Amino acid sequence: MGKAQKYVLLGDATYPLQDWILKPYQEDDSLTQRQLQFNYRLKRAHSVIENAFLRLKARWQILLKCDDCSLELLPTLVLACCVLHNVCEAHDNPFNEEWLEGAEPSELPKPCRPAPASMEDGRAEQVRELMCQYFETCGEG
What we know:
The chain is mostly helical.
């Protein structure tokens, strides 16, 4: 593998496997224990991300109404909410669990059907395999 990959996005089975998109192995009886562990950890990471976005939307409920703002403003708005959220966390401004009542979890947009195999990057399997090996050696976490 050439350059070191610093970041990857997490996708589900509908996304094409790319060296920058990690997706789980196809669930079937032929998966090894290591592949099952990889899928489990990917699902856990995905749930942490969903929870973080839910808490962000609950604290900054303007994010629930983003369909009102222009597309050009949206990245700045989300970034500002992230910065303000981190400031609140750093200064022990507690998160009010009641805020969650107004921010229902929603499915993140994703492709409707699986991406065709032609979109998959053969080199991406190396990245997934390296992550799989890493999960195996780093213990439970």
